[in-house]
Design a protein that fits this description.
Structural class: mainly alpha
Number of helices: 19
Radius of gyration: 22 Å
Largest sheet: none
Strand content: under 5%
Number of strands: 0
């Protein structure tokens, strides 16, 4: 049974309940497998996703086929993880911010929601910057403006104009509602694939058959080929999706059945990741033949192809894909998480505006400050912070609660409530998060734990879940 009849709740304490956080009845769910597929499609196809995929082929010195296999393995692993985290929200119709109350307490859930919200805001700012590079590309191509350098925080005047355009567009689309966001994703996802294939064919035409030799060179690998490198690629890809893995219930609550969710996850993760990663490799290899360097930024490649029509089409589609996933994976979860801090005073709409304001500053700092961390370290650190929260979510639902939740108790501050714990906080769960996060972040940055760096996310998730079960026991 996908969703029991007893989940409906007509209200709750104002400090815990508003319409954005309330369970969605089955009759009001209108997403299917295609919408779930496009959530992942747009995540993978974003400019950051392309750059990450292309850089993985060049970073670890692995044989290219091993890197390609590692990306597919990570897709299968992420699919399994989100099937687990999405199932309870399909059944009960609640978002992650509410789901977390079962483990953390009705008030304590504000802590993981806040952590998840902070990470989402961070990602939102970064993806906004990447989307703006596509708009800047179109402006330069349309008006024949030469690229400058320097500027405020490393951004030129054109860069700032593009950044402000993207920031404003995203706020407008968000305020139009989830239905418009879904329609936007359904258009952007498939169209980006058409443009990527067209770009690959054009590069093949210009580079000639020499492109196959370059692919062979990349696929030869180097001295770094090893099991550790394979695990590092898998770990980085899983960490890239960490934010969506933990709050996948924010999306799965819109589908009617688990079957629809699983189908969307299968086609959107291992299948789409394999196809997109190979295109990224093909285009990267072609760029080496044409331009003599390995470019991982698709906007730079499109610009050098020097075809105005392709440049404009590619700019629009990369912009659309990046904006689409930014709204679904970062903006909407952050809005829910902020609303969860004070539901009586903050709606999801207000939470979205708060998100946009903070993220605007973060994205503006990408070039001058944040990018110096490096993409792999940046992704792995954010993933390590979130990993224990996922482990506790899964351990609580499947082991402690035995897949049975009392949704009405998630919206009450009655001290006798099932999820009230100690003044609304489950302090043992908070302790489990802290201990596990310290260790998982340590695998990224501490030299003594570098051998475990590829396992950072998995270690954090397992450790968080195990500590939670040990500290809280089986209720």
């Amino acid at each position: 049974m996908d969703h029991p009849d007893f989940i409906q709740t007509s209200g709750g304490d104002p400090s815990l309940y508003n319409e954005d956080l309330a369970p969605i009845p089955n009759s009001q769910r209108n997403w299917g497998a295609f919408e779930i597929f496009n959530v992942w499609n747009n995540d993978i196809q974003s400019l950051f996703g392309y750059t990450l995929a292309a850089s993985l082929f060049l970073t670890y010195g692995l044989n290219g086929w091993l890197t390609f296999t590692a990306i597919i393995v990570s897709g299968l692993l992420v699919m399994w993880l989100v099937n687990l985290s999405g199932r309870p929200s399909v059944r009960y119709g609640i978002p992650y911010a509410v789901m977390a109350r079962s483990a953390m307490g009705v008030k304590g859930a504000r802590f993981p929601a806040l952590v998840r919200g902070i990470v989402a805001i961070f990602w939102y700012g970064v993806q906004t910057y990447f989307a703006s590079t596509a708009v800047a590309l179109a402006i330069h191509a349309l008006f024949g403006i030469a690229h400058g350098s320097g500027g405020f925080l490393g951004l030129t005047g054109i860069d700032w104009i593009a950044y402000i355009i993207v920031a404003g567009f995203q706020i407008g689309l968000f305020l139009m509602g989830i239905e418009w966001v879904g329609k936007f994703l359904n258009w952007a996802g498939p169209f980006v694939y058409l443009v990527m294939i067209a770009l690959a064919l054009m590069i093949w035409y210009q580079a000639g058959n020499g492109i196959w030799a370059e692919i062979g060179t990349i696929f030869q690998g180097g001295e770094g080929s090893s099991v550790a490198g394979f695990v590092a690629v898998v770990g980085t890809m899983v960490a890239y999706f960490a934010a969506v893995i933990i709050n996948f219930g924010d999306f799965s609550r819109f589908v009617k059945t688990e079957t629809q969710m699983r189908a969307g996850n299968f086609w959107g993760l291992p299948v789409s990741m394999a196809f997109f990663s190979f295109i990224a490799l093909f285009i990267t290899a072609g760029a080496v033949v044409l331009f003599g360097e390995r470019l991982t930024d698709p906007t730079a490649i499109v610009e050098r192809v020097d075809n105005l029509a392709l440049t404009l089409i590619a700019a629009v589609t990369f912009f659309a894909a990046t904006v689409g996933i930014n709204l679904v994976a970062n903006f909407i979860p952050a809005a829910y998480d902020i609303a969860n801090m004070a539901p009586a005073k903050i709606s999801a709409r207000t939470g979205g505006l708060i998100t946009a304001g903070i993220a605007f500053v973060i994205g503006a700092l990408w070039v001058s400050l944040i990018s110096s961390i490096g993409i792999a370290g940046f992704v792995d650190t954010l993933g390590a912070i979130l990993a224990p929260l996922y482990g506790i979510l899964i351990a609580d639902y499947y082991v402690v609660q035995k897949r049975q939740l009392r949704v009405d108790q998630m919206f009450t501050e009655d001290p006798a409530g099932a999820y009230y714990y100690d003044r609304g906080w489950n302090r043992r769960a908070i302790l489990a998060v802290g201990l596990a996060a310290l260790f998982s972040v340590g695998t990224v940055w501490l030299p003594a734990l570098q051998a475990l760096s590829g396992f950072g996310w998995l270690i954090g998730a397992v450790l968080g879940g195990v500590l939670y079960i040990l500290l809280c026991g089986r209720r």
